[in-house]
Amino acid sequence: MCRAQGHRVSGSDRGYGLAANDRIFSPLEKSGIVVYKQDGSFAQHEKSDFLVWSTAIEEDNPDLVAGKGIPRLHRAELLKEMIDAFPGVSIAVTGSCGKSSVTAYLAETLENLGLAPDCLNGALMKRFVAPDNAGNYRRGTGKYFVFESDESDKSLLHYQADYAVVLNLGCDHYDAEELGRVFGTFLSRTRRGAVIEEGVYEKVAKYLPPDLPVAVFGEGAGAACRLERYETREHRPFAAFSGCREIALPQSGRHTALNALSIFALLEMLGVEKEKALDALTSF
């Protein structure tokens, strides 16, 4: 994303040089990004303004050691800069699991609607892979920016989004009470609207501003956006949402139906016509 905006970018990876990873590194290099082995050698060739790192990088990493003296910028801080500079509408997708899938599904649905979104994901999106694009980032027209928002290290508290989708709450990293506080704090700073799974809503409701538009989705009676039916016929999956016609899903699984429902709820919040939204959800 930084490279697409005209910045000079280099980086390293532990798996650089492995043939299996060429499908990732080759497009990065073709886009003008210089990739190094993760042995500190970048410092001999680069005069970097910032060294961007994430919580997953250990302090004894060779590049962090070689980069002493270079100002550090946490990945979430850089993402904040990107969000703040974005001219259009920002949409964060978060939750304990399913974030990468829904980020990609939402971006592709907006693409199916002709809205050409920008998207930054934690996984490679097959729809957007190109010879000079590994697929984790897609440059759009500047109208919508969809991005995966990580709760594992609470880095999502670094930034704000116009809209947020919260998929679920599972205790992979923190207990339910602390996760409720993290998601609740993030949602309290969301500017224009939120789509929240019904179980999560119970944990975060006390944090929500009274004037924030909220759509609660799920299968229970407390969900205004409800999955009424999921079934498979002749090996094809179908789903029906409350007040809507049935649609064919692009993948099987009740979780896919709920993912589609969360996106549908957001599209309604964005003002997309219901029938067009349903059609766009059938391809992913």
The number of helices is: 8
Arrangement of strands in the largest sheet: 7-6-8-5-9-10-11-12-13-14
Backbone shape: globular
pLDDT average, as an integer? 94
Task: Please provide the ordered H/E string of secondary-structure elements.
Answer: EHEEHEHEHEEEEHEHEEEEHH
Quick one: biggest sheet?
10 strands, mixed
Radius of gyration: 20 Å
How far is the first residue's CA from the last residue's CA? 23 Å
Strand content: 15-25%
Protein structure class: alpha/beta
SSE layout and pairing:
Blueprint (H helix, E strand, L loop, with lengths): L9 E4 L8 H9 L3 E4 L13 E3 L8 H5 L5 E3 H11 L3 E6 L4 H14 L5 E3 L16 E2 L5 E5 L14 E4 L9 H13 L4 E5 H7 L9 E5 L6 E9 L2 E6 L4 E3 L5 H17 L3 H7 L4
Parallel strand pairs: 1-2, 3-4, 5-8, 5-9, 6-8, 9-10, 10-11, 11-12
Antiparallel strand pairs: 6-7, 12-13, 13-14
Explained architecture:
29% of the residues lie in helices and 22% in strands. The chain has 284 residues and is an alpha/beta fold. The strands form 3 sheets. Strands 7-6-8-5-9-10-11-12-13-14 form a 10-stranded mixed β-sheet. Strands 1-2 form a two-stranded parallel ribbon. The longest helix is centred in the last third of the chain and has 17 residues, at 254-270. The chain is globular.
